Q: What sequence folds into this?
């Protein structure tokens, strides 16, 4: 087949393409950022192939009836004036089909980069990394490399208000009274006066009793430029609080799919899921598929196990699901290395984003009541029945750990048959809005016997009229495991917590060892901020960006948004081969990204 | 020597997942406790998500799984219910029973998820 002479043929192709484009669904309209006078009219910027000299570039432009205005050395870009009456869209379409051109983009109009007046802005390295040291850092390194950030300040020159796009934080709830969150909460009307819903307790008060959700909400949309705290990716936002994780930060398929369903039904266009589980979950997959059908972007965390989640047995979900509306996010540190805790996967994880030492909003102040089971080496908990004793045992890795054990010979001996051994203590948790019981346990209990953990808000023996938190037989596999339980129902002056080893006559096993015992309480406030790390923190950086993109381009579909996030990021060595894109998110580049036309066809005759 | 291993590299325990409000008939503080101390728990013991075939009546749940003692049910979507059992036969047995009843479209465990903050 012989092609017509190049310029004319190409012009026909372009005209055809534009005609097809214009008649496609609304999404397919040419909608680069700045379609309304945010670019210099009649001009484009071109990067020709490296081998092309100045004269060749001029000739190539002239072949389209264009004029070179300037060669932007040493960048190698060329500023070109289009033909009279030709739009920027038409000009870009011409060069996108020109094999001599590697990249074409509008000549954007930039404003001075916007910087908010919030007092803690200097600590937000994700937005401006100056190599600053982060106070109260919880991850090393605590200082970074200038420029290793989301490149968001130029984007703020174009948009800071994302409030037209509802972002659902499906998490532990949000403290909607926090000073930097209150202005940016979703307006749920009279049906949802607290800006969302609580699927843990099934009521319309999604108050955060864990801290996780409020921190995430602030990364997405802490009010910016209000001279308080810091700022989110979006200075103005519409954050829908959906409580699906309890005070221990734990949720279930049931609570989370209900939360996603609520978000979709009530108009969220971006959903943040900073959570994960280890099993393929069909109902979760179907629910995220329904979000896709409703044009919703879902941004999820890669998880914190430091594993390749593509490897057999390592998969984490929903990151491991691969619907096109889902973006899975790894965490980068302040030097743009993959954070040591961050999961990664060349086919599962899409992009990286700042996820260490992230300062954000927090629901209140936390206090931990640690208990060491002894006074002067003697057990100081109340006992009933023989069995429970205190022991100072060596901890692998060094040191001594205060431990509650039954039997006294744990782990070399076995507990007694027909035992009902109880040990408990009463704590004063008054004034707390939430409480969390945490301990480590190494357990081996035969079937038919039980190790029970109970509490009682009345104090005294929690195995008389108390509430069971966990119980039964089983083994932790010869190693201690951490356990945590929501103790919020026990936040009074007399909260007793206890352990019971109960056995029958049918033989016995090693028993139990309990250590690292503590109760952490949360007292809600309105002006608390905190530094946290995790892929949970990287995820809302991307969810916020998704909201920004959709606010800036109201016609963007989920696919346009995901493309702009994934394809416009900055190539980062640490992510190469470890994510689908090898890129870290770049807010300005995503804002400037032009989604390629889809569904084009042309007949050659 | 009696020695406890360090906690630095512990597996995430999936115990303690039962939260208040799991069953509409059951007050939060009386929710059935998780049973067992297994390190491999990634689901809530005794809790299953049952999706009925279109047009099937909710009593199909009791007909199919009632032998295990139904502590509570809660409707999550049009055809999907969270079912809490007194006795947990395990996912394989539940799925097998579901396959035998055409009123049941699918059965799966109620999986556990955790926030991914550190």
A:
């Amino acid at each position: 087949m012989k092609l017509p002479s190049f310029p004319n043929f190409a012009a026909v192709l372009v005209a055809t393409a534009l005609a097809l484009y214009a008649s496609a669904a609304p999404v397919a309209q040419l909608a680069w950022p700045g379609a309304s006078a945010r670019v210099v009219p009649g001009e484009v910027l071109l990067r020709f192939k490296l081998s092309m000299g100045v004269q060749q570039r001029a000739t190539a432009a002239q072949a389209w009836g264009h004029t070179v205005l300037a060669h932007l050395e040493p960048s190698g870009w060329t500023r070109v004036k289009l033909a009279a009456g030709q739009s920027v869209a038409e000009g870009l379409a011409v060069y996108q089909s020109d094999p001599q051109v590697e990249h074409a983009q509008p000549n954007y109009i930039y404003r001075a980069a916007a910087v908010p007046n919030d007092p803690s802005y200097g600590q937000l390295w994700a937005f401006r990394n100056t190599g600053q040291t982060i106070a109260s850092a919880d991850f090393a390194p605590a200082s970074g490399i200038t420029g290793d950030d989301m490149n968001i300040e130029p984007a703020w020159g174009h948009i800071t208000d994302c409030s037209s796009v509802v972002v659902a934080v499906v998490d532990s709830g949000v403290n909607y009274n926090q000073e930097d969150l209150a202005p940016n909460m979703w307006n749920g009307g009279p049906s949802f006066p607290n800006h969302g819903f609580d699927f843990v307790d099934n009521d319309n008060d999604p108050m955060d009793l864990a801290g996780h959700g409020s921190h995430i909400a602030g990364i997405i949309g802490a009010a910016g430029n209000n001279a308080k705290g810091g700022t989110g990716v979006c200075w103005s936002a519409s954050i829908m609080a959906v409580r699906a994780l309890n005070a221990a930060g734990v949720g279930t398929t049931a609570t989370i799919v209900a939360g996603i369903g609520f978000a979709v039904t009530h108009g969220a266009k971006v959903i943040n899921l900073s959570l994960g589980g280890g099993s393929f979950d069909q109902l979760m997959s179907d629910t995220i598929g329904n979000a896709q059908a409703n044009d919703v972007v879902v941004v999820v965390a890669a998880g914190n196990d430091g594993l390749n989640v593509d490897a057999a047995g390592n998969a984490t979900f929903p990151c491991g699901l691969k619907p096109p509306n889902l973006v899975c996010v790894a965490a980068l540190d302040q030097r743009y290395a993959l954070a040591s805790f961050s999961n990664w996967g060349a086919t599962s994880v899409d992009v990286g984003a700042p996820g260490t030492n992230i300062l954000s909003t927090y629901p209140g102040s936390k206090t931990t009541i640690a208990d060491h089971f002894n006074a002067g080496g003697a057990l100081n908990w109340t006992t009933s029945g023989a069995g429970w004793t205190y022991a100072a045992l060596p901890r692998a890795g060094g040191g001594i750990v205060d431990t509650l054990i039954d039997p006294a010979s744990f782990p070399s001996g076995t507990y007694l048959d027909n035992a009902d051994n109880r040990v408990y203590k009463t704590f004063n948790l008054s004034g707390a809005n939430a409480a969390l019981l945490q301990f480590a346990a190494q357990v081996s209990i035969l079937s038919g016997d039980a190790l029970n953990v109970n509490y009682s808000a009345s104090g005294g023996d929690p195995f008389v009229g108390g509430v069971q938190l966990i119980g039964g037989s089983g083994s932790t596999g010869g190693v201690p495991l951490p356990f945590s339980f929501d103790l919020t129902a026990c936040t009074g002056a007399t909260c007793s917590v206890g352990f019971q080893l109960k056995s029958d006559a049918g033989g016995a096993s090693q028993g139990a060892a309990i250590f690292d015992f503590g109760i952490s309480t949360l007292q809600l406030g309105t002006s608390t901020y905190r530094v946290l790390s995790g892929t949970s923190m990287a995820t809302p950086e991307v969810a916020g960006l998704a909201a920004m993109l959709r606010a800036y381009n109201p016609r963007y579909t989920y696919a346009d948004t995901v493309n702009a996030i994934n394809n416009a990021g900055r190539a980062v060595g640490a992510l190469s081969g470890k994510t689908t894109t090898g890129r870290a998110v770049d807010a300005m580049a995503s804002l400037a990204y032009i989604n390629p036309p889809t569904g084009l066809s042309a007949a050659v005759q | 020597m009696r020695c406890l291993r360090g906690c630095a590299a512990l597996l995430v325990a999936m115990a303690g997942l039962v939260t208040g409000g799991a069953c509409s008939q059951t007050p939060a503080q009386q929710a059935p406790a998780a049973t067992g101390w297994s390190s491999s728990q990634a689901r809530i013991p005794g809790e299953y998500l049952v999706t009925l075939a279109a047009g099937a009546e909710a009593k199909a749940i009791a007909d199919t799984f009632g032998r295990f003692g139904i502590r509570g049910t809660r409707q999550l979507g049009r055809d999907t219910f969270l079912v809490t059992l007194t006795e947990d036969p395990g996912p394989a047995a539940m799925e097998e029973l579901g396959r035998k009843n055409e009123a049941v479209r699918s059965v799966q465990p109620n999986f556990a998820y955790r926030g991914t903050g550190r």
User: Anything to note?
Assistant: Chain B has a mean pLDDT of 75. The longest strand of chain B covers residues 104-115. Residues 91-100 of chain B form the longest helix (10 residues).
